Amino acid sequence: MEDNLIISKDGTVWMDVTEKAKEVYASGLFQLYQFVEDGDMMVRIPIEQHSDIIKTLEQGMMVVIKVGKNPKLGQHDLITVESWSTADKIMHDGYIYVRYNDLRFCR
Question: pLDDT digits over 13-68, tens only?
């Protein structure tokens, strides 16, 4: 089951339902999305009609549903690139140490 889960950078958890996409759409219980990975980007396009599912499957694209947020990813777990690159760093025994106050966090 965990092989079907995808976690985006913002902590949103998605489940691959490609094999059961037609059945899930027919149930009407979930909003389906066409899932496209382009390098570091994850693009989700809402599937509005049955014909969208057919086209997505014919193109070999993944169909996903939104499951929720990753509980392991708290609101202060992401450090901004700018603050990391400007923070003073000390390397010791394979670890990198930075002053906590030099870092900025985002959601």
Answer: 888 999 999 999 998 888 999 998 777 778 889 999 999 999 999 999 999 999 88
CA distance 20 to 29: 13
User: What's the Rg (C-alpha) of the chain?
Assistant: 19
Strands 78-79 and 105-106, sheet pairing = antiparallel
> Are 15 and 67 in contact, with CB atoms under 8 Å apart?
yes
**C-alpha dihedral sign at 87, 71, 69, 8:** positive
Give the list of residues 6+ apart from residue 8 with CB closer than 8 angstroms, or none.
14, 42
Model confidence, pTM: 0.62
